[in-house]
Structures are given as C-alpha cells and as structure tokens.
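User: I'm writing a tutorial on reading structure tokens. Could you give me a worked example: one chain, its sequence, then its tokens, then a sentence or two explaining what the tokens reveal?
Assistant: Sure. Here is the example chain.
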Amino acid sequence: MIKSCVVSGLDGQPVIVEVDVGAGLAAFDIVGLPDASVRESRERVRAAIKNSGFDFPIRRITVNLAPADIKKEGPSLDLPIAIGILVATGQVKMTDQLARAAFVGELSLEGTVRSISGALPIADRLSAADDIDYLYLPRGNAAEAAISHEITVYGVESLGQLADVLCGETMLEATTTDVEELLRADHTSDMVDMSDVLGQQAVKRALEVAAAGAHNILLIGPPGSGKTMLARRLPTILPQMSLAESIEATKIYSICGMLPKGQALITSRPFRAPHHGASSVSIIGGGAVPRPGEISLAAHGVLFLDEMPEFHRDVLEALRQPMEDHVVTISRASARVDFPACFQLVGAMNPCPCGYYGDSRKQCTCTPHQRNRYFQKISGPLLDRIDIQIEVPRVQYKEISGRSQDEETSAVIRQRVQLARQRQKQRFAGNPYSTNAQMGRKDLERYCQLTDDAAHLLAEAFRTLGMSGRGHDRILKIARTIADLDGTENIALEHVAEAIQFRSLDREEFNDF
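And here are its predicted structure tokens:
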C-alpha cells in the first residue's frame, strides 16, 4: 500500500495505491476510476522499471486507486505505482519510513522522474495527514512543495535513485524553501514603469485610486491614447503580495502547469490580458474536468480586457457574479469546484466603432445608432460594477516631447498606495476582506462619514446623474479610498467631487461622450 495524492480543484486528494501481483495470465490492470493518462501509465511504468535495472513481473498485476469513487487524472501516479510494484515483488522492502511517505511523479521510459502540476496543493494536503511525514516528488517541484513547512520534502531525479534511497544505500538531503526571502525580493518587472507614460495625469491619478482601493476601472479613449500602456503598468503600483496571496496564486498556476520553471512562489501581481475572441470557459473556467480560467489566473492581480465591447456578451455577463463574490463556482455532474476570482478588472474601449468620436483631430464616421449599439454591448449591470470610468484623451505633442524624468515612477506611487492599503487593513481588521472595494452596506454606514458639504454634493449628484443605489455606493467607496490616500478619516467635499468625476461616464453619459 503506497500513499500518493492527486489534484482535485484547487486542493489535493489523497490516494492509496494498492498493488497485487498474483498468478495467472500476464496482465496489467488499473482500477479505481483512472482517466486515460493514468491508464497509459502502465506502459511508462513497465519501461521505467526495466530500464532502471529492475525486473518487471510477467504475472497478473492489479493496481487499485482508492478511494474508488473519485476520478484520478494526470501522470503523477506513475511513481507510486512503480514503487508499489517493486514492493510487491520484494525488490524494495517496506520500511517504517516508506510507510509514512507519499510519492508523486511522472516517469519517463528510461526511468527519470519528470515534473508534475499541482505540487504545492498536493504538499499542503498531505501535510495535514497524520500518517504522512515525508513526500518524494520530482526534483523540479521540490522547492515549490517545500513551501509547505509541515512535511519533509525530498526531490528525486530517477526511479533508480529513489529505490536506492528507500533501500538505505544512499541518502537524500531534504529540500527547504525560505518563503520570507522570496517575498522580500521585489519581482516587479523592470521593463515597464509608470514614468514611461508621458502626460495623462488624470488617468494616472485614477489608476492610483484604483490600486489603493482595489477598484475596477474602465478606460475609454481613441486609438493610440495609451489605454493599454497604462493598464499594463497598473501591477507596478499595486502593493506587494502577502504570503497568503502568493500561496493561493502559486496553487492556481501550479495546477494549470503555468508556474515558471525554477520559480517556487508567485510573488508579483499577475497580469492577464486574454484576447477578445476567448470563450466563456477560458475566461471563467470550466471544462469536463473543472479547471481555472483567466479570472482565477488573475487572482490578486489584474484582468485586462482590451477592446471590451468586442468580447462575447455571455463572457462579459458571466463576470458579474465573480466581480461581486470574488469566487467562481464551477458545477458539473461529477464535481463542484470553487476557484478564487479576487481580481481587479481593467477594461479598455474606444468611444465608438471607428474610435474617433469626440476626437479633436480625426472626424468620427459612425452614426448615433452605431455608437449606441456599440455601447449597448456592455450591459448596465456590468457597467455598474466598474467603480471608476474615465476618459483617456489623445496625448498632446507638448506632453510627448516632455522629459520623462519629470514623471513619477511606479515606486513612488506604490508607496502611497501601500500606505492607503495599510489604513484599510487596520480598519477592516477581523473581517475576511481588507480593501474599500469589498465594503458592504453596513461598512459604508460605519466607515464612510461625510462632512455636511460633502453629503450635500453627493445628494445633488445622485439626483442629477440618475444614479442607481449601487452607483451611489461605488462613489462612497471611491471617496473613502481618496480620503485614505490623503490620510484623513472623514470624507470631505473634495474627495466626493473627485469620486463623482470617476463615475460620471454612466450609461446616460455615453451618448454625449
């Protein structure tokens, strides 16, 4: 009986590999709801055992994967199946250490152990088991798995090496990972910086507010105004990831097989920019076997939807629930899986199909009907969930010809954002959230105290702009964030005025954009 683990959703599922080698016609059967990749392990295991110098039994081999009512998928069971056969044939002795160990790994035909997906979720799940103290897995996954400090991790290179270790002929050094050192390292890309963007001070301010309060933002402007350039620099001003955020992001990338080679932990904010032709499953997640989509890959980072109206309507509407709940539930007949969806949405769009409505240099060729139809691709309920909506005007020549040294760097802006986030973290201590964008109605009443003139301005704006109740709450959240950037407890008139500017492009305003 060999212990192992497979990935189920975002977590690990322990598996017991039982091997019986008995008399009868030569056969090799695997039972216990294996998928195609697990069934194919018969040929990999057979060749790996022979090419590692061991004898493969020409007898009837039955491998049972328990529990038998849970589907097993992936090649990570190759290694425990091979060890099970070696133990069943007496080529490796069952010892106390082997009995308290778990094995995961894919085998090549020559017996080397290849890297797998989901090493961190597997290690986390096995570390909670009372009867498992050791984890043997591919060397390429050892640093990632060692993030879980509750289990001793050993990285192996081949089946032969592992057999020698289990027989006591050689020793392996346990793998350790200094998580604190990884978090201290600043992995923010040096390739992009907010100082690269010349001009657009109002939009930079909007991005700073969005970063400080984790607000969603929509950028509307003609082609070439810098919408994409600005969006790609938003992660550079976001606060450093916490340990919990890094581990959750690492798990998602690990189970998708997208963790960069040689990197044990995701420490920089993800930035995902799917094409507008992407399907609902690729964005939201799903499939016959539920897998994370782009909104989960962007967890604790940025999801950038360029040319937002060109996305399929069903894709955009499917974003509404994850934007509110910060989790997406994928339900299938065989499984129900929850994936994180705590992303920050950045949308970009033109003011009309041709892109030049309201532009000072090029004349728009669209009819009013075409413009209305273009904006109707984004529904009112979805638009209501985007906190900040701001125009990105064409850049003037005097701004392009200016000196970039005069522009604030991402590091400077990031310091202000981090201070604002710290104020929010202290304010929401004890709650499951820590940003203004996640405040509920009771939080608004408690933490968004307005001065008299600020309350009067908000009431006037609510009446004249025809806001919804959600739009009113969004303005309060934005104003709270602006006040946090200023370091003040009460929300003043100037905070509400600036917040209203960031919400002035509601549905009624689009026709006059």
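What the tokens reveal: The chain has a mean pLDDT of 90. The chain has two domains: 2-177, 194-396+406-510.
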